[in-house]
Amino acid sequence: MMKEDSVSPSDRPDRAAGDVSLKHFSGTESYLTSPELRHAVDVAVAIQRPLLVRGEPGTGKTLLAHAIAQDLGLELITWNVKSTSKAAEGLYVYDTVRRLQDSRFGDHDVSDIRQYITLGPLGRALTSERRVVLLIDEIDKADLEFPNDLLHELDMMEFTVAETGDRYRAARRPIVVITSNAEKELPDPFLRRCIFHYISFPDAELMADIVRVHHPDIGRELLDQCLAKFYWLRGVRGIRKRPSTSELVDWIGALLAEGISAEDIGERIPFLGALIKKAQDTELIASGDGRSDRTGSTWGS
To answer: Which residue range forms the structural domain that includes residue 270?
Structure first.
């Protein structure tokens, strides 16, 4: 952590320095990636810009930050954004209530405000002595001003604690991964400062590799039947919530635990509730009214 009274432009973390020793991101044994995603991570690290990741739920946006931290051997700091989150809280929180209580009861010296300052996730990332990975998860849940309020800190890698006047700048620029489910459009000034990547839903070949990571002993015939049913369900017209990768992995785990065969999968979809989570979707599929955009597999075939 670097703390000082003033910061000149020459003292700021150098965009071009300090990252050459980091190896290229290659994914992990449990997190398989496409070449495009690996390249996006490498570019964001190389030019020290936040990586903004979008994609439908279940495509591994959040787990990407975990994989980067694991692969590069760095600490992960997570900021789970909520609808009530404010950008300032990511830097620090001043506990005025505790200070007031201490002053009322007279058993604490309340003159040092610093003891009532708690750093938030972004503050901890910026004051870490070592490079870390900072995950800002689901940034689009917050209000529209939230991303703009982060612009200075993400650009300059510095912040000031207004109550004490203490000013901090990052000794090592963190690797910032920001996820979004596209619930809200993000402002253009914020987007200009990010490297953007859309994680496409895995095709059947990559999905088979992902499943084998979690269920290495699954037979080829059973896997093929499971993937056929899974992609058929995702293609059903009118379905409100398509099953995700994690739900497929859980579903196959249930099938294996119960000894369900490939022939059973060909005739029906056991444990449908592991894949379909909305009553309307269950009724649509069970009624036979749902037609799929995927060919080669139908309900109950």
So the answer is: 204-287
